[in-house]
């Protein structure tokens, strides 16, 4: 078991430290703790990123707060630090690893000191799934000769900050055996309490006082080849969680200590087992793909805001402060499907975040002279847009480049609507509409209404001056993807209006009156008949990405790369190398085809895939999974598999851009992880949830003998087993109703406990 | 007299050579001959630019053809060249000058050779007004000691070319005493014949054979302090002029020789006197302004296509190949008024060029998926746009910058319409409408119709994604100037339709049927009621240059200059320093106020002048005259005078940009010259020709005691004399009808020969 679910790397390469911080990240939705070593500091990008807590210092970006590092720990041998990257220590062997089945980080390092002493340091840690405020660590060492050894541990303030420091007013408080470091965010003065308790189960250590850095020293005259162990619990609470974070953190430490490390770990593992029970995908015949997909799901799970009412997942999850800890369209378009079909209650929390931030979206629309809801391109706590107008610096001149991510990516509102509709479709549950989802959808439709222009000579409505998913081409007209999202949104608003009016007439009346939406709805219905969405050309079947795209200079990403003057040069912006060519940053027309597959015949999908693929740089991690998905749908198994693996392994290999201009954009890629799941489940397994039924039509990659996966759909749970020639679906005994499955062209209505076994022609 | 009408400069500074080439330019509308010395070559930018003859080599720009230099001439003393910038010669004194009353270039240079010999070289030349194919030169020298001197002269091929060589297939032909160099343009194979004849009136020179460069040597044993003189006539004909250019050029040389230099000069001066009789403005009390204004008019006269049927004036006139020899909106907006009120027959030729190139404008509209006529931003022979999509190179990276001059400056079509309307208004002549002007106007209106979008929630039509006169802000929405030009065009089309239908019903029926314009006209009438033109704010009275302009970073041109990394850095384009600030390149809102002065109260004009002036870089020579004009209208005499002088002296001082990016843009500035005339006559003299009358309301700058000027208007000619307190107008005896003049609030209908003398309150 351990082999399948573990990532282990050997040796210590400074070049790998940042990437390992992501690969070996642990987390529980409340916090993410980077995969750094216990002795690391800010230079090695130590970070304990708190979900949903943002702070801003001066004119710099607002970004998530990294808590002080309660897990800091290192060995001093005869007063000399024994640590990776410490002077006068040689590393005989080092392994760092992660058990991603249970989110347990571990390290084992054999040091050889200048005097020949061998020191072994081992540690293991996890971010408890219950309670999510607690981090637990087991820290051990042994020495080859009798030595005076101290373990230096404390709450270290030397943590990574992009635009910090975000905490001030530090105060160290002692509560019984717990020490609590109290601090306050700079902007809003929100208290953040980090508590630690150290356990010495054998009672062998003596108090060595305080280190230079103010940490405590646990001292011992160590005997050779005996392993000494300390346990540590760290608890973090903020003023957003409770009124008195100091007490809450201290109490959590005490309670964890009382329960003990093993008991805490046991409960933690039970909760992870429950997660895998509803999500694990086994792929017989391809252990590599299986492992990558499981690892991808791990990354999603550790970011899942299970503890919250209404919280979403940032684009770099909880791996740090990159991208301002902001939520992008990534959530609705790439992460949501995984949760919809495993834990729809978590999907619901993600969407509630969009309800909670609706007023921010309204403010943004008003700021741009529009009505309705224009969701933030980079959304933090309030829904106001954190995206700056000059988002990238030109590496050639050092000057800021005007980018139009914030102003022109109007497709974001459509992504939110798409999220809500996916929820309703996957769960069959109307309640989120009533809780605010309907209001959000209507306001998004109203926003598109107010962006629309009518072209009299063509008798159609157009959406002008927008940026599609391909950010290298800003301020374009009639981006096919965007216009399709507009039409989808207007259509959804009309359908929803009909449904709510019929089923919830009082609710509907109140909503429509409160929003003053009657006339808008009439306008939307009228407009819907005349929405212009660029269609495949009759002859070539190609969809033009936007007005005039085909007239741009034809080029490939490699050709542009040869023209680059600096490796981090930004290819977009007003005068970027790609901006005036056909090189696109990421799936754009292909994103449209992935979302609205059924609207386009396979020949059109193939023609566009073949055209756009060699012109796509995949400069965003969102690109590969969509290329995989569309390739799977047109039977291009090999290419689909390549793009799927590229998405699924992105945080294992770190094969993603780390810089745009002079901007560091490293971190984890939960959207690619979610996209890998989509490629596997929607793509290869052909599992698609429609309005009325679940369709299963597997087209497995070569070597995939059988796939087994659990699936939540339409309020029930199902176990699927798919091979190239057969589909088995078992409805859970506890299901409350029947759900129609369409397999091999036939519909089977699965009652609770029922199993179907269909051979495919 | 000579002092007033002459520009003389002393000394030889290599840095001044390019500028002097412009300042001392001579020309006659058929050709421009740069103000270089007789011994200069391509390095000193010798150019004889032919109007309307374009050629293209390979992938380079199409640009005007420079003829071989028939005026090449230099002295060899004992075989050694005696020339400016020649080695081993010292210049004791040098003057170069221009009599701009008659367009006569002269130079006097005293050389001191290494052996102490003094050599004086003098020359004088003019580009005949009749025939325009002929250049005449008188070339003299004297020596201080007995020396063997040769005059080397011929048709030199070493001339300035930006993207040449444009001529090939050279063949030297002898015709009697004339030598003709025949050549052909590269692209279209059009023959160009340059003929020369050398006259030795005293018969003192002997044939010295041929120089190394293939020129002829006229040799003499020169006596001390005696002046020896040769005369030379050069004639140029192309295949666009006649079927046999070689014979035509040879004949022209022979005829000129037969007439003799003095007779040719006499006729030339008569024709110039006739020009000044209809245009000279005398300004009592301010000889400096008077001289600058006369010089400005000189620059316009030497570019006037008097010889042609339908030809316009390039933005750099005939001073070289800069800006591709292309015609811009400069002609209609800045040069036309001068001709309208001096020689309306020349104004007509300029506008006929737009009729001749209407099909090119139609092709351009179609290229951009529009209907009607989208005139070329840079128009050459066919009206197809010579403007490239990447018009400037980035000096920081060497990369081309995407500019939207060609695609988005839709105001060009409005400028053409404005030109036609000005003609009709100034002359009272309908015939140009019938000759094609009406068709051009309707097609321009149709173009704007097809660019329009309707904004449903605002119930108005908008013009989106355009570039106004301020080219630093490309791709903006609802540029106030552009939208005003659109409304003006649609309005003009409607008024014209009414007029033609009433007065020329058969013509109108044929036109409207041929163009299929009935439905468009109905659409235009409907649209006209809903055209959005940004208006002055109720409180601030400011007009926003385009949607969102006031939201841009506020900055001044000086602030941006401090940020520049290179002196020639282009401030516009996608990421130029000005592009995302309020710094504007040139008058834009102020251009609107200059054109439609009567539509805006003086307070609004003042508020906008005060706001935009400190934010304007005047990066185009078109800017200053418009700032002068509007300043004059709001009573800001001092500021108006400053801007007027800046415009009027631009080609004397050369105080204009010579580079944009790595692009050389030096040359003369006929638009600024015409703008100076507008500022003086429309602005200070307050002479405005309306639909039914001529208004005269002087507001003279301090020190201008009296202004006298002739004025052509409404088919008549008038002599005006203005002081701050009085206006005298005399109608020419030869006028055919009466013209109403409005002076001091009263209307006076001037019959032929009548004079009014009005004291102003």
From TrEMBL, chains A, B:
The protein's UniProt keywords, in alphabetical order, are:
Glycosyltransferase, Hydrolase, Transferase
Q: Which InterPro entries match?
A: 6-hairpin_glycosidase_sf (IPR008928), 6hp_glycosidase-like_sf (IPR012341), Gal_mutarotase_sf_dom (IPR011013), GH65_N (IPR037018), Glyco_hydro_65_C (IPR005194), Glyco_hydro_65_M (IPR005195), Glyco_hydro_65_N (IPR005196), Malt_Pase/Glycosyl_Hdrlase (IPR017045)
* Record has Transcription regulation as a keyword: no
Coiled-coil spans are: none
Q: Does the keyword Transcription apply?
A: no
Q: What are the residue boundaries of the Glycoside hydrolase family 65 C-terminal domain, all occurrences included? A: 688-750
Please give one Gene Ontology molecular function term for this protein.
carbohydrate binding
Q: What sequence ranges are listed for the domain Glycoside hydrolase family 65 central catalytic?
A: 294-678
- Glycoside hydrolase family 65 N-terminal domain residues: 9-239
| Residues annotated as catalytic | 471 (proton donor)
| A Pfam match | Glyco_hydro_65m
Task: Give me any GO biological process, just one.
Answer: carbohydrate metabolic process
- Specify which residues bind substrate according to the UniProt entry for this protein: 329-330, 585-586
By sequence similarity, the record places it as follows:
Belongs to the glycosyl hydrolase 65 family.
Q: Which PANTHER family match?
A: GLYCOSYL HYDROLASE-RELATED (PTHR11051), PROTEIN-GLUCOSYLGALACTOSYLHYDROXYLYSINE GLUCOSIDASE (PTHR11051:SF8)
Name this polypeptide is given: Family 65 glycosyl hydrolase
Organism of origin: Candidatus Reconcilbacillus cellulovorans
Lineage of producing organism: Bacteria, Bacillati, Bacillota, Bacilli, Bacillales
């Amino acid at each position: 078991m351990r082999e399948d679910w573990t990532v282990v790397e050997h040796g210590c390469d400074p070049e790998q430290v940042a990437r390992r911080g992501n690969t070996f990240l642990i987390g529980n939705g409340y916090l993410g703790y980077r995969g750094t070593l216990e002795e690391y500091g800010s230079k090695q990008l130590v970070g304990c990123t708190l979900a949903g807590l943002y702070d801003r210092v001066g004119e710099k970006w607002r970004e998530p707060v990294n808590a002080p590092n309660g897990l800091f720990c290192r060995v001093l041998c005869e007063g000399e630090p024994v640590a990776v990257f410490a002077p006068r220590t040689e590393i005989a062997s080092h392994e760092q690893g992660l058990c991603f089945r249970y989110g347990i980080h571990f390290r084992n390092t054999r040091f050889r000191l200048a005097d020949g002493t061998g020191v072994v340091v081992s540690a293991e840690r996890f971010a408890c799934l219950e309670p999510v405020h607690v981090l637990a660590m087991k820290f051990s060492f042994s020495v080859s000769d009798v030595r005076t050894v101290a373990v230096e541990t404390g709450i270290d303030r030397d943590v990574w900050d992009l635009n910090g420091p975000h905490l001030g007013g530090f105060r160290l408080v002692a509560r019984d055996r717990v020490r609590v470091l109290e601090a306050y965010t700079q902007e809003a003065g929100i208290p953040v309490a980090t508590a630690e308790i150290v356990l010495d189960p054998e009672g062998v250590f003596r108090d060595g006082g305080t280190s230079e850095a103010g940490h405590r020293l646990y001292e011992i005259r160590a005997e050779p080849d005996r392993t000494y162990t300390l346990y540590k619990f760290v608890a973090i609470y903020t003023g957003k969680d409770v009124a008195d974070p100091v007490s809450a953190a201290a109490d959590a430490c005490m309670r964890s200590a009382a329960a003990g490390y093993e008991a805490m770990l046991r409960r933690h593992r039970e909760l992870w087992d429950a997660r895998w029970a509803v999500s694990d995908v086994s792929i017989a015949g391809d252990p590599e793909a299986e492992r990558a997909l499981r690892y991808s799901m791990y990354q999603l799970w550790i970011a899942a805001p299970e503890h919250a009412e209404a919280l979403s997942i940032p684009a770099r999850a909880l791996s740090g402060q990159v991208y301002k800890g902001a939520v992008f369209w990534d959530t609705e378009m790439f992460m949501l499907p995984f949760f919809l079909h495993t834990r729809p209650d978590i999907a619901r929390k993600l969407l509630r975040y969009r309800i909670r931030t609706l007023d921010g979206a309204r403010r943004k629309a008003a700021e741009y002279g529009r009505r309705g809801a224009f969701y933030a391109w980079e959304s933090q706590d309030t829904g106001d847009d954190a995206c700056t107008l000059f988002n990238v610096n030109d590496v050639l001149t050092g000057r800021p480049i005007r980018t139009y991510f914030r102003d022109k990516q109007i497709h974001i509102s459509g992504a939110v609507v798409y999220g809500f509709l996916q929820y309703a479709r996957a769960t069959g549950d109307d309640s989120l509409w009533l809780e605010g989802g309907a209001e959000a959808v209507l306001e998004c439709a109203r926003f598109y209404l107010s962006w629309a222009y009518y072209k009299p000579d063509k008798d159609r409505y157009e959406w002008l001056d927008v940026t599609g998913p391909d950010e290298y081409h800003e301020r374009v007209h009639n981006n096919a993807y965007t216009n399709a999202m507009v039409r989808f949104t207007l259509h959804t608003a009309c359908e929803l209006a009909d449904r709510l009016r019929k089923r919830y007439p009082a609710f509907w009346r109140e909503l429509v009156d409160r929003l003053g939406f009657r006339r808008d709805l009439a306008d939307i219905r009228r407009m819907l008949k005349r929405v212009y969405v660029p269609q495949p050309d009759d002859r070539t079947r190609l969809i033009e990405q936007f007005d005039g795209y085909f007239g741009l200079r034809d080029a490939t990403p490699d050709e542009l790369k040869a023209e680059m003057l600096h490796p981090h040069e930004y290819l977009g912006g007003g005068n970027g190398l790609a901006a005036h060519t056909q090189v696109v940053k990421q799936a754009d027309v292909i994103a449209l085809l992935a979302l609205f597959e059924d609207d386009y015949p396979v020949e059109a999908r193939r023609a566009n895939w073949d055209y756009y693929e060699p012109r796509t740089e995949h400069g965003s991690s969102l690109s590969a999974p969509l290329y995989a998905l569309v390739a799977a749908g047109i039977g291009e198994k090999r290419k689909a598999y390549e793009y799927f693996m590229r998405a699924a392994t992105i945080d294992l290999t770190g094969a993603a851009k780390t810089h745009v201009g002079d901007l560091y954009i490293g971190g984890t890629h939960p959207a690619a992880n979610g996209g890998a799941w989509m490629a596997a489940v929607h793509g290869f397994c052909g599992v698609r949830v429609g309005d009325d039924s679940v369709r299963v039509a597997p087209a497995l990659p070569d070597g995939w003998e059988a796939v087994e996966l659990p699936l939540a759909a339409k309020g029930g749970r199902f176990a699927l087993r798919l091979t190239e020639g057969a589909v088995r679906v078992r409805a859970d005994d506890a299901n409350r109703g029947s759900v129609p499955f369409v397999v091999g062209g036939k519909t089977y209505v699965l009652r609770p406990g029922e199993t179907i076994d269909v051979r495919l022609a």
